[in-house]
Write a structure and sequence with these properties.
It is built from 19 helices and 14 strands. By secondary structure, it is of the alpha+beta class. Among the domains are: 270 residues, Hypothetical protein af1432 (Orthogonal Bundle); 109 residues, Alpha-Beta Plaits (2-Layer Sandwich), CATH 3.30.70.2760. A 4-stranded mixed beta sheet has the order 5-6-11-12. The chain has a 4-stranded antiparallel beta sheet with strand order 10-13-9-14, sandwiched between helices. A two-stranded antiparallel sheet has the order 1-2. It starts with 19 loop residues before the first helix and ends with a strand. 40% of the residues are buried. The N terminus is likely disordered. One of its GO terms (molecular function) is dGTPase activity. It comes from Pinguiococcus pyrenoidosus. One of its GO terms (biological process) is dGTP catabolic process.
């Protein structure tokens, strides 16, 4: 028997092949025919149709900005085909979100899923990435913490402090987009609860009982619609249409084929809304047929492969650190040479916002794009000279160098927060202990050159290690849920039990599993070519502290370049 899902709104039935946009056009007679449905030709999904509300959102400065944010950030400097933007990705997510919810409604006859529900899910997919900054996750994970400890943004005008994430920024920018462009959701059949629902779909509260975007007439949360929160941003298992789109799109653009765009079609065909139990409550969730376990594992493995081959490629990370350093220099310029205009506020009464200050005001923030590098490079102020040099180094391929990767170390070393500075001190100390002569150079001691000239500078004097020229990076690769098996977060139904779903026992598919779902390593980057050789030796010497006890039997002063147990150059 199908789930007895409740009807919350009464609407005319929609035909099998009729688009959501067309349905809404019939109900909005004030719109011209030319604004009914617009088609976008997409290289992944073919034709993507957008209705009147979607078009209004797309045709705004806030949304068009996504066309100037590269989807893969700094990966475009390594994979030259990776020039696609968050604009096309957002269209793809909206398309898949609509396609999935319509597929579920049609195949299961879910009469309680209204046209408003479908439109809200589609709008959430369209707007889920509005809050990304220049170079995507670089801004979230590196720039914001540099100026706001813990990513806590102080509230303005008596407002509460809030924690930065691109999802939380998307919510604020979504509100700003509607306000700045005079878009009234009521003109498209949506109300204030629908607006709240869209925002919750973008950034869902973790627990279903906290999700208030859909309520019953008695004011209680409608748990029969809980599955709608699994579509755009699935906080339960991590499997959502956002990932399905960028897996296909990214792998196609970088030429690293790890995902087939037909994978999602098989998943959609075998997806089903079932009841699951959690915390004494029964609510709906998108579940999958038991025969799809291997397909699901392949999707999560794709995430690992893309991070391994593309997103966290050592050269991609090196360029990311260089852009970070350039942006930090520009953001700390008191003259605000690089600034954007916005609404006056207590932070910037004149309405001119620096790179970091722009997070306080969404009109200003919406003007930050990847093109900020071009403005820095074209500047002439002496305060930005170092930033200009870094950008030139990127463009002339004079990059920071990865001097080694350590894969075997105590887990507590990785778990400890903010210990990179201390570890760099240890690395330099290990170098000085293994190479006493280097310690003497660093302390400024004078030596005799061959030939008897005392105090003259030797050619390798600048090769002594300096901490500010080193970067220690903690790298984590996983299948989507850290060290946990992501399949353990998904409920599975069988051919004979389609109404309720359960978690599948791992032993039933253990032969398909990897030895571990998470891989961690420590990487050392060096900013100066002159220090590269010394940095390699220092990292190797330091690594022996963790590898020697494991019986590697290696010489810390060995500079042959041969790999040691758990250590790679």
């Amino acid at each position: 028997m199908e789930p007895a899902l409740k009807r919350t709104r009464t609407v005319a039935p929609i035909h099998r092949n009729e688009s959501v946009g067309a349905e809404f056009v019939r109900r909005i007679p004030t719109l011209d025919n030319q604004h009914r449905v617009r088609g976008f030709n997409d290289y992944i999904h073919g034709t993507i149709e957008m209705g009147p509300l979607e078009q209004r959102i797309i045709d705004t400065e806030e949304f068009q900005r996504l066309d100037e944010l590269h989807q893969l950030g700094t990966a475009k400097f390594v994979y030259r085909g990776a020039k696609h933007s968050r604009f096309e990705h957002s269209l793809g997510v909206a398309h898949l979100a609509e396609k999935l919810v319509l597929s579920l409604r049609r195949r299961q006859g879910l009469a309680n899923i209204t046209e408003e529900d479908v439109l809200c899910v589609k709008i959430a997919g369209l707007c889920h990435d509005l809050g990304h900054g220049p170079f995507s996750h670089l801004f979230d994970d590196v720039i914001v913490p540099e100026f706001f400890p813990g990513k806590i943004i102080p509230g303005m005008n008596g407002g509460e402090d809030w924690k930065w994430s691109h999802e939380s920024a998307s919510l604020k920018l979504f509100d700003a987009l509607l306000e700045n462009n005079g878009i009234q959701l009521s003109d498209y059949g949506l109300d204030d609860q629908d607006r709240q629902f869209i925002k919750e779909l973008i950034s869902p509260p973790k627990e279903p009982h906290l999700r208030t975007g859909r309520k019953l007439p008695n004011g209680k949360v409608d748990f029969d619609k809980a599955f709608l929160y699994d579509i755009v941003n699935n906080t339960q298992s991590g499997l959502d249409v956002d990932k399905l789109d960028y897996f296909s799109r990214d792998s196609q653009r970088v030429g690293v084929i790890v995902s087939d765009r037909h994978e999602y079609q098989r998943l959609f065909q075998n997806a089903r809304v079932c009841y699951v139990k959690k915390g004494g409550r029964e609510y709906t969730q998108i579940c999958f047929r038991d025969k799809l376990v291997k397909d699901l594992l392949d999707v999560f493995r794709t995430r690992f492969d893309l991070h391994y081959k593309v997103y966290q490629h050592k050269t991609v990370k090196a360029i990311e650190f260089m852009i970070r350093d350039a942006l930090v220099i520009a953001a700390t310029d008191r003259k605000r040479t690089i600034s954007v205009s916005g609404k006056p506020s207590p932070v910037c009464p004149d309405g001119r916002y620096g790179i970091a200050e722009a997070v306080h005001e969404m009109t200003a923030y919406a003007k930050l794009k990847d093109s900020i590098l071009d403005f820095i490079a074209a500047s002439s102020e002496p305060e930005l000279e170092e930033a200009r040099i870094l950008i030139k180094r990127i463009r002339t391929r004079d990059l920071y160098r990865c001097c080694g990767e350590l894969e075997t170390f105590p887990e507590a070393l990785f778990e400890e927060e903010d210990n990179e500075d201390r570890l760099l001190d240890e690395i330099i100390h290990s170098y000085h202990r293994a190479y006493p002569e280097a310690a003497a150079r660093t302390s400024g001691a004078k030596r005799k050159r061959p030939g008897g000239e005392q105090g003259a500078k030797r050619e390798d004097d600048d090769a002594s290690l300096r901490k500010h020229e080193l970067i220690l990076h903690k790298k984590t690769l996983h299948w989507g849920k850290g060290a946990q098996n992501p399949i353990s977060k998904i409920h599975i139904y069988t051919k004979d039990m389609v109404r309720e779903a359960e978690k599948v026992e791992e032993k039933r598919y253990e032969t398909l599993l990897p030895k571990a779902f998470q891989k961690r390593s420590l990487l050392l980057f060096c900013k100066s070519k002159k220090m590269e050789a010394a940095a390699r030796l220092a990292f190797r010497a330091w690594s022996v502290q963790f590898l020697g006890a494991e019986g590697s039997g290696s010489d810390p002063t060995n500079s042959s370049g041969e790999s040691e147990q758990g250590f790679r150059e």
